[in-house]
Amino acid sequence: RMGGDDDDDDVPQLSSHTLAALQEFYIDQRQREGTKISQGFKQYSIGSIEEDWQLSQFWYDDETALCLANEAVLAAGRGGRIACVSAPSIYQKLKEQDGKDFSVYILEYDKRFSVYGEEFIFYDYNNPLNLPGNLIPHSFDIVLADPPYLSEECLRKTAETVRYLTKGKILLCTGAVMEEQAAKHLGVKMCNFTPKHTRNLANEFRCYVNYDSGLDRDSSCSECT
After folding, report:
1. CB neighbours (10 Å) of residue 35?
2. Cα separation, 87 vs 154, whole angstroms
3. DSSP code of residue 5
4. pLDDT tens sequence across 184-194
């Protein structure tokens, strides 16, 4: 190569401020991991897998996830089958209730969730019907979906998956701005209940259903706890 001592000129340099922020992030991450180990962190609890913002992942707070999980169990009924499409924090809450009479699958792009074994199904909304043969059409009593992006395309393609899987009941979580598209693609209406995330998001989130739900009677979790 030519250039001698100038070879390093094109290598981007991180500012001292950025380096300090990165160091703080990694220290915080190691501390959290250490806390999980020392507390015997539950495999299925929210936070056992960290959010990946590059995959547009934002976990629900504990109360919201529990409320939506309980709603899914009630809607599915005794011995019911539940599908969580791109909704891992709700799946994790359902797994904490493993003794109850229901079964649940998670359809998720993030392969870290393959630790949940046969219940994990790799899912890419860009190929909404690229699903394993053992997922029989219309075999789930309720499908709970949380599309990763607030776009018409993402909702439309996720809706294909939801309609393929559900016997009828749908619980959709997405932005308030998607209300019209949600009605168009899934026939769902906005509930009074307002979901909350562990981190404050810029966009207002809401829940939508196509059946008579406890979520429609209260904006809090009092119906579900």
Report:
1. 11
2. 14
3. G
4. 999 999 999 99
